[in-house]
Amino acid sequence: MEGSKTSVEIIAPSVQEAIARGAAELGADPGQLLVEVLDEGGNAMLGLGSRQARVRLSLLRRPALPFEMDDNSLQATEAVVRDLLDHLAVRGKVQARWGQPSEPDQEPPLLVDIEGDDLSVLIGQRGETLSALQYITRLIVARELGRATPVVIDVEGYRARREQQLRQLARRMAEQALEQGKTMTLEPMPAGERRIIHIELRDQEKVYTESVGEGDQRKVTIIPRT
After folding, report:
1. How far apart, in whole angstroms, are the C-alpha atoms of residue 71 and residue 98?
2. What's the rounded Cα separation, in Å, for the pair 224 and 226?
């Protein structure tokens, strides 16, 4: 179950992409992971196609630490996002704030809200553009602050609405799985969205969830307990 996993193996075109996918699947920053490169990938034998990279990622257990929620981090993150919007020729109001950590020993997430007129270009199909913007922002902010910091970007409340939709979908499909007595398979979703499904149903006694498939076709299955 992705929602409670502490390690995962990922196959992707490159090591960097595999790390990014695995970090999203575990709901952690790359700096919070032990990375084992099982296969760096490259050209296949005899020049036939190419071999994908494969990595194993494990969560590093950390003692509870006091995290400083300072204004400088907020201002630096806002500046990074504004610069990225300028490069994209997109106008929007950017505001950063501290959120609540999901676990006591985790650093509070840095939440960035972008508001404006017709910002759908920043969301993209199934939120893919938004995920890319968030990933790039995390990399730059980590360099600016000298540490990996969980940054979550939302555009015109898209993430909040999508999360609510996914939670409702998870509960509805779980009910159908029990009524019909069979596994229900959801549409392919990004790792972050699959994690919402897993977390929503992880305390259910009558069903459990698993992710199946590879790459962009990876999806959640909801399975009745026997």
Report:
1. 9
2. 6
| CB within 8 Å of 134: residues ≥ 6 apart | 151, 152, 153
- Measured CA to CA, the distance from residue 97 to residue 77 in angstroms comes to 10
Distance (Å, rounded) from C-alpha 14 to C-alpha 93? 35
Candidate CATH numbers 1.20.1260.10, 3.30.300.20, 3.40.50.300, 3.40.50.720; the one for domain 71-156: 3.30.300.20
Closest to 76 measured CA to CA, from 151, 129, 131: 151
Phi/psi for 36 (5° steps) reads -115, 115
Measured CA to CA, the distance from residue 218 to residue 88 in angstroms comes to 30
pLDDT at 2: 45
DSSP-derived secondary structure for 135-157: HHHHHHHHHHHTS---EEEEETT
* Gap between the Cα atoms of 166 and 148, Å rounded: 28
171, burial (CB in 10 Å: exposed 0-12, middle 13-18, buried 19+): middle
Mean pLDDT by 10 residues, the chain (226 residues): 68 84 78 80 55 83 61 93 95 93 75 92 87 91 87 92 94 95 92 88 91 86 90
- 144 near 80, Cβ under 8 Å? yes
CATH number given to 160-224: 3.30.1370.50
pTM (global) more than 0.70: no
